[in-house]
Design brief:
The chain is α/β, with parallel strands linked by helices. It is built from 15 helices and 13 strands. The protein has a 7-stranded mixed beta sheet, sandwiched between helices. A 4-stranded antiparallel beta sheet has the order 9-10-13-12. Strand 5, helix 7 and strand 6 form a beta-alpha-beta unit. It binds 4'-deoxy-4'-aminopyridoxal-5'-phosphate (PMP) and glutamine.
């Protein structure tokens, strides 16, 4: 059979590659971002209760209404921003499906989409498979700060969308108010849609406030906000997330969503809705992960890795330039095979494999795992 790949340059994601290598070499896996401890028993019980109470058939296409109400309440509480639960919030199969569906609903042949690199890996393939083209703005370690003049110079009449991600995976940086205002200024009076990937909104450190796109009036009118319960409730395998957007944008999203997935796992949605009635379930996350970040950083303080403390997400980037000048992918593989610790090389998320000699370590792990990992890192 003859066929032409629609994604000829796409291989297997680095997360899958590194997790498989970690398993093969029995290494501590700080590569792919997922917790190695169990989530809340109360949440598990609420999902079981939902199953026993009959939430076992298709959820409404836009999501279980109790969950959409709980999400709407959260936006009122945290950002004093309203999203109509019936018209402006849709529950998705993780943030990944929300992102794919948003891009599919709006991107056509030759449309341009601005992305900031290093970029989370699901953005570009979704743009390309829909015939669009990504235009990248390359950022650099250790601060990953944005040159807004460069962004301005890359906008054109073909620019249809800008994808932003704060707190940022993989760098662990966050955008300032100035960044958000610059974005708003650049997009004002345009038809550009903003896809604001905010899956780590509840993991921000040092008393900083997460700046959601919905806090900025003009940006809110053109933004989809995507979120992931997998990140918030420590159960990445459930693949439940959601997106919010003004009604006009959301109605286009749902035209695709209904044929892309229609609806997602119903008992989990009901269980999460009940669990979210207590806002501490998500508000407590900052402190929970800040303690883990600080523990990890104090444990590796004697190592040869150079540190810029993560400002958000559950990832810490470490600079290994004092140890070796090896290419980061090679060094990550060597660490896994020889030292039995797996991390993610950042060059795979950059233009032309730009290598800043940094690796990303996930600290959503038990304290015991962090102690063992640090013992290894300190000896390298
Ligand atoms: N965006 C970013 C920045 C992520 O790190 C992830 C992984 N959680 C996703 C999107 C996808 O989230 P989900 O697992 O809910 O699909
Ligand atoms: N979001 C996770 C990470 O950044 C990976 C999810 C995946 O494996 N696709 O590590």
């Amino acid at each position: 059979m003859n066929y032409k790949s629609k994604l000829p340059n796409v291989g297997t994601t680095i997360f899958t590659v590194m997790s498989a290598l970690a398993n093969e070499y029995n290494a501590i896996n700080l590569s792919q971002g997922f917790p190695n401890y169990t989530g809340s028993q109360k949440l598990n019980d609420l999902v079981t209760k939902a199953m026993n109470n009959g939430y076992n058939q298709y959820a409404p296409m836009a999501g279980n209404l109790d969950l959409r109400l709980a999400i709407g309440h959260k936006y009122e509480l945290l950002y004093k921003s309203s999203y109509h639960p019936e018209k402006e919030i849709t529950v998705t199969a993780g943030a990944t499906q929300a992102i794919y569906t948003i891009i599919s609903a709006f991107i056509r042949l030759n449309d341009e989409v601005i992305i900031f690199k290093p970029a989370y890996d699901c953005y570009a393939p979704a743009v390309e498979i829909n015939g669009g083209k990504t235009i990248s703005v390359q950022l650099s370690a250790p601060h990953y700060s944005v040159n807004w003049d460069e962004v301005a110079s890359k906008l054109s009449s073909k620019t249809k969308m800008i994808i932003i991600n704060t707190p940022h995976n993989p760098s662990g940086t966050i955008w300032s108010e100035d960044d958000m205002l610059q974005l708003q200024k650049l997009t004002q009076n345009t038809d550009i849609i903003v896809l604001s990937d905010e899956v780590y909104e509840h993991i921000v450190f040092d008393d900083t406030q997460h700046l959601s796109a919905c806090l900025f009036n003009d940006s809110k009118q053109r933004s989809f906000i995507t979120a992931s319960f997998g990140k918030t409730f420590h159960n990445t395998g459930w693949k439940i997330g959601y997106c919010c957007a003004p009604e006009n944008l959301m109605s286009e999203f749902r035209k695709v969503h209904q044929f892309n997935v229609f609806s997602v796992h119903h008992p989990s949605q009901k269980g999460i809705a009940d669990y979210m009635q207590d806002s501490e379930t998500y508000l407590g996350l900052n402190a929970f992960f800040q303690r883990k970040r600080d523990l990890f950083l104090s444990l590796i303080s004697e190592s040869r890795f150079k540190v810029q403390p993560s400002k958000g997400t559950y990832f810490q980037v470490l600079d290994y330039s004092e140890i070796t000048d090896a290419y980061d992918v090679d060094f990550a593989k060597r660490l896994t095979k020889e030292f039995k610790i797996a991390a993610i090389p950042l060059s795979v998320f950059n233009d032309n494999h730009k290598d800043d000699k940094v690796l990303r370590f996930c600290f959503a792990k038990t304290d015991e795992t962090l102690v063992k990992a640090s013992e290894i890192l300190t000896k390298i």
